[in-house]
Amino acid sequence: MGIPRRTFYRWYDGYLEAGPEALEDRPSALSRVCSRIPAHIHDQIIVLALEQSGLSPRELGVRFTDEKSHLVSKAKVYRLLRAHNLIASTAYVMIKRLIVSMLRRRG
């Protein structure tokens, strides 16, 4: 038939239990993301990132966890900052480090 055996038997068992109505299309259940950051936490992280622009995503996550007692991973902070264009590109960071190291050597 071209369908997996498991799917067939799930449909068949549903038919035996509830009749033809069990075979009708149903909307799929909404998937819930357990690790989604609530909106108010999201906003607090953005505010902290704007206030502490020199901190890395890891440092922001640690600072936020210490200050607000809400655990946020560095990966979540990074994705959040990237989504708001608050992360400098890697090339920019590398060039900035190169320039700073050159200036330190001169003076």
TrEMBL record:
Its EC number is 2.7.7.49. Pfam families: HTH_32. This is RNA-directed DNA polymerase. It comes from the Bacteria. It comes from Alteripontixanthobacter maritimus. GO terms for molecular function: RNA-directed DNA polymerase activity. InterPro entries: Homeodomain-like_sf. Keywords: Nucleotidyltransferase, RNA-directed DNA polymerase, Transferase. It is an enzyme of class 2 (transferase).
